[in-house]
């Protein structure tokens, strides 16, 4: 147990309150000069105050004294970890475990728990090897599972994979009385080895859970064990009423292989949805025309929304096409919606007029709008916004309309409208990970800042939640969920959406000049440098209701985070490393606009002047470039104001420019005064005189506001214009 | 063309069309993982071609047999709008009854808002009946008196399973039994 006063010191060091921490620590050291915890903490302070070599040297010395207190070990291990001294980081634990085997279990478990977030499968394997010395069944399973994880997720070559496979298999085949979870692990190895005979043997005559049942079915198919497969499917489908499409298909296949005739199988299929769709599959299996089966399905399900997705991959027979053509407006709404979808019809307004007042269940979306969404495709973005907003007013829970609206606002400068729509979708928790990219063009305000902070909190909590869940799943032996837990955790750890959120926060704090969070996030960036530079995972949902893909500027986000990190970084060698990376990235990014190019060139010059040592001549010429280009005419020439003044490039460019100005001001205030010569005041006043709102309103006035249906669009247009006005002034008023 | 597969945590990246529904709750991650860890067989999804997720069921086992309270609780069942009204929710619910762990319990229960008539009908069709009315279950504040309020009250609906041979865990006229939320915690 760690005492309260020790914990206080640890927290102070973590928060960077070094002087105070040091004074408390020195007091402790006078009293307890032997206590290694205080020495490693002192070294951490030394390190943070720039005395790196000294602190490393001293910590290596401590390492060789084999400290055994878990907290000391943890701090020591993390210290080396942060410096990429992987070996030393592990030795902190390993030394003790080897030397004092009695401590093995407790310490190895702590090592495991503290290492999970590294998602380092080799390390897990090593830790479990030590735990396995305890000869407990659970630890043996952990050790075995870690071989599997190494093979599927680890960065290892073929030869090692084969070795791990052999080792894993050998260990597990020595265990007796495996439960279903353990069997699952066994079977994973056998699948990797493609030993399906063995799998069949193991899974036969066992009571299987769903996970194993699926594997068993698949195995029987691969082994062409048709009789067994047929009997098993028969049991599931007819005795246990497990109405499962995949099982039905296997039933039909195995029956055919066993010589059962088409005519005998067809009547066995029930007239449920799965049954009728299986009839189509049965036709295909026996090379027969699918027409009549498709028609039977259509006749029964044309008034259900699943009809279209169910049939869309089949070729519709002419009889249905005729029916669709003949269907008149008096048909059922859902039938009409399906028909129009099959027909790919864009003119749906008659149907809309007839059915717009038909009530739907209170919280359901109106299927009618599946059609209107297609019909507005040809309109320009402004009219799309107006139409979508109008449709949404009478279909307030339709998420497709809302996502579409978010996508269209992202093409315009009505940035102010974005967060309210996003919020109305009640997006929470992991949904942010999937969908926060729809906030790419959200406005810069105090409210949006606090919203992004909320999103960021989700990441902080979920990180810890995943670690705890993984530990819990190991402890409870739920092996068949563990690979996906681990994958999910590692996917969430360094995702584009997380980095986007961090960037949005930083950009907003700079643009708003709200310094409250700067300290926290500069620490965050410095601590997570490796993640920023590293590969980002992408879990975003670009599939759901994706009508107009949002330009998420992923490379720009990475570059900007890099710029912030370089600005905050104080260590010269680190700055140089990051700066090199920055250069490499800009020289490999071909897809920048003219304006983005200029911005990143300017940053290059700024960083070079401020953070990277250059000689005076070079400095002069770098500064000269900035002075010349940070002028409104020059910026306009480089595309500050896009040709289409309504395009979101306008606010995007403007925000990039204002952010740059803010960063220069930050540098002037906090780092060096060399950029003071730049005449930012002139630039700011020039930006203010651009009359960007008026430019846009003039363009809007030129639009011919004709719509396919009649409605009073003026109030929506007024809201839209005020959103543009607000979004632009949110930017301009802040400079 | 629905198939049933076990739910995995990374399915959370692929269920927006289901979870963007206004009545479907989105929980923090450990809520989902706790179900996956403690009740892996009672958390499954329905999928369509292309692995599109059309819905899912989240259930758990709780309560003690000695108190005649051992049962399966349906925490969430929800269906993508495109696949509604074709019996999918019913199917996911009925599937529970075929799972060994559930069969070893006395009943299945769930909560539905008093105003959710459709939900109530759905479950009635599946053989569930109202066991009791939970006063203020969805309210912001804990109720002090047993005064019904349709907006915040829930019906606790139950279906007895074969294990409950004498049907002791269900009753008629359950709508008239009012209880406080703390009385439905197991
Ligand atoms: C409630 C919900 C799960 C129903 O899913 P579903 O797959 O469409 O339900 P089923 O097809 O099995 O419906 C069975 C019966 O319930 C009733 N029902 C369900 N939805 C209905 C609706 N929108 N309108 C009228 N009746 C409805 C009907 O009686 C239906 O039988 P029928 O279609 O033969 O008339 C789905 O609408 C949903 O996901 N809603 C949001 C989440 C939610 O509210 N979940 C919890 C409910 S307590």
TrEMBL record, chain A:
InterPro entries: NAA25_NatB_aux_su (IPR019183). GO terms for cellular component: NatB complex. Belongs to the MDM20/NAA25 family. This is N-terminal acetyltransferase B complex subunit MDM20. The lineage of its organism: Eukaryota, Fungi, Dikarya, Ascomycota, Saccharomycotina.
TrEMBL record, chain B:
The keyword Transferase applies. GO terms for molecular function: protein-N-terminal amino-acid acetyltransferase activity. Keywords: Acyltransferase, Transferase. Pfam families: Acetyltransf_1. SUPFAM superfamilies: Acyl-CoA N-acyltransferases (Nat) (SSF55729). It comes from the Eukaryota. Residues 2-162 form the N-acetyltransferase domain. This is N-acetyltransferase domain-containing protein. It comes from Candida verbasci.
């Amino acid at each position: 147990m760690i005492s309260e006063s020790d914990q206080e010191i640890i927290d102070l060091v973590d928060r960077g309150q070094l002087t105070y921490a040091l004074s408390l620590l020195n007091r402790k050291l006078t009293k307890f000069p032997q206590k290694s915890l205080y020495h490693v903490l002192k070294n951490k302070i030394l390190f943070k105050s720039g005395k790196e070599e000294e602190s490393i040297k001293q910590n290596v010395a401590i390492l060789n004294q084999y400290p055994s207190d878990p907290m000391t070990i943890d701090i020591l291990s993390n210290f080396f970890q942060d410096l990429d001294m992987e070996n030393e980081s592990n030795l902190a634990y390993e030394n003790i475990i080897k030397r004092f085997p009695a401590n093995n279990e407790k310490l190895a478990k702590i090592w495991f728990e503290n290492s999970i977030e590294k998602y380092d499968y080799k390390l897990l394997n090593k830790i479990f090897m030590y735990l396995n010395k305890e000869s407990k069944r659970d630890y043996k399973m952990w050790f075995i599972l870690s071989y599997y994880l190494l093979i599927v997720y680890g960065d290892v070559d073929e030869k090692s994979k084969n070795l791990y496979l052999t080792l894993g298999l050998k260990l597990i085949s020595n265990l007796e009385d495996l439960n279903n979870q353990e069997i699952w692990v066994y079977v994973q190895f056998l699948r990797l080895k493609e030993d399906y005979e063995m799998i069949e043997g193991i899974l036969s005559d066992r009571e299987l859970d769903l996970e194993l049942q699926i594997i068993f079915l698949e195995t029987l198919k691969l082994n062409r064990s048709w009789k067994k497969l047929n009997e098993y499917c028969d049991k599931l489908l007819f005795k246990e009423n497990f109405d499962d499409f995949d099982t039905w298909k296997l039933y039909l296949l195995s029956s055919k292989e066993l010589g059962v005739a088409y005519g005998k199988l067809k009547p066995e299929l029930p007239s449920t949805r799965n049954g009728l769709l299986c009839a189509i599959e049965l036709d295909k299996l026996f090379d027969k025309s699918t027409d009549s089966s498709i028609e039977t399905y259509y006749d029964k399900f044309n008034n259900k929304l699943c009809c279209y997705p169910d049939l869309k991959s089949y070729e519709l027979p002419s009889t249905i096409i005729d029916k669709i053509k003949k269907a008149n407006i008096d048909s059922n709404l859902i039938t009409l919606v399906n028909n129009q979808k099959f027909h790919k019809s864009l003119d749906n307004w008659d149907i809309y007029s007839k059915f717009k007042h038909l009530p739907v269940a209170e919280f359901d979306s109106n299927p009618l709008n599946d059609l209107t969404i297609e019909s507005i495709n040809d309109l320009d973005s402004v009219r799309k916004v107006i139409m979508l907003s109008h449709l949404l007013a009478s279909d307030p829970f339709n998420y497709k309309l809302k996502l579409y609206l978010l996508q269209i606002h992202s093409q315009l400068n009505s940035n102010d409208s974005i967060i309210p729509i996003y919020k109305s979708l009640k997006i929470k928790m992991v949904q942010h990970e999937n969908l926060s990219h729809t906030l790419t063009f959200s406005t810069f305000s105090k409210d949006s800042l606090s919203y992004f902070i909320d999103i960021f909190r989700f990441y902080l909590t979920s990180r810890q939640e995943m670690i705890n869940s993984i530990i819990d799943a190991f402890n409870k032996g739920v092996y068949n969920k563990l690979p996906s837990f681990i994958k999910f955790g590692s996917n969430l750890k360094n995702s584009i959406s997380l980095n986007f959120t961090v960037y949005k926060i930083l950009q907003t704090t700079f643009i708003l000049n709200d310094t409250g969070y700067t300290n926290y996030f500069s620490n965050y960036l410095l601590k997570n440098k490796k993640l920023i530079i590293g590969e980002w995972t992408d879990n975003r949902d670009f599939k759901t209701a994706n009508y107009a893909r949002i330009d998420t500027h992923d490379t720009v986000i990475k570059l900007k985070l890099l710029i912030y990190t370089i600005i905050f970084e104080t260590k010269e060698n680190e700055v140089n490393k990051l700066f090199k990376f920055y250069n490499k990235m800009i020289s490999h990014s071909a897809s920048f606009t003219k304006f983005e190019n200029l911005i990143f060139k300017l940053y290059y010059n700024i960083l070079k002047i401020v953070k990277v040592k250059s000689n005076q001549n070079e400095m002069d010429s770098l500064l000269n470039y900035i002075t010349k280009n940070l002028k409104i005419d020059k910026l306009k020439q480089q595309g500050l104001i896009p040709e289409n003044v309504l395009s979101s490039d306008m606010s995007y460019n403007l925000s990039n420019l204002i952010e740059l100005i803010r960063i220069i001001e930050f540098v002037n205030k906090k780092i060096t005064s060399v950029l003071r010569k730049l005449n930012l005041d002139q630039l700011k006043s020039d930006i203010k005189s651009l009359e960007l709102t008026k430019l846009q309103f003039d363009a809007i006035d030129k639009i011919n506001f004709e719509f396919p249906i009649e409605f009073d669009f003026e109030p929506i247009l007024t809201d839209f214009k005020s959103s543009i006005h607000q979004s632009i002034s949110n930017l301009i008023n802040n400079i | 063309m629905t198939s049933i597969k076990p739910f995995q945590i990374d399915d959370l990246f692929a269920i927006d069309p289901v979870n963007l529904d206004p009545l479907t709750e989105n929980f923090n991650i450990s809520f989902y993982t706790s179900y996956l860890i403690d009740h892996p067989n009672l958390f499954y999804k329905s999928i369509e071609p292309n692995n599109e997720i059309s819905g899912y069921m989240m259930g758990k086992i709780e309560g003690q047999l000695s108190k005649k309270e051992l049962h399966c609780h349906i925490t969430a069942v929800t269906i993508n709008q495109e696949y509604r009204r074709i019996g999918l929710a019913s199917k996911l619910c009925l599937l529970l009854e075929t799972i060994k762990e559930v069969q070893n319990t006395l009943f299945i229960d769930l909560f539905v808002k008093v105003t959710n008539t459709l939900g109530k009908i759905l479950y009635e069709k599946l053989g569930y009946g109202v066991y009791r009315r939970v006063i203020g279950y969805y309210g912001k504040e804990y109720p002090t008196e047993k005064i019904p309020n349709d907006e915040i009250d829930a019906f606790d609906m139950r279906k007895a399973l074969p294990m409950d041979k004498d049907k002791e865990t269900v009753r008629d006229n359950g709508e008239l039994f009012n209880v406080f939320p703390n009385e439905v915690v197991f």
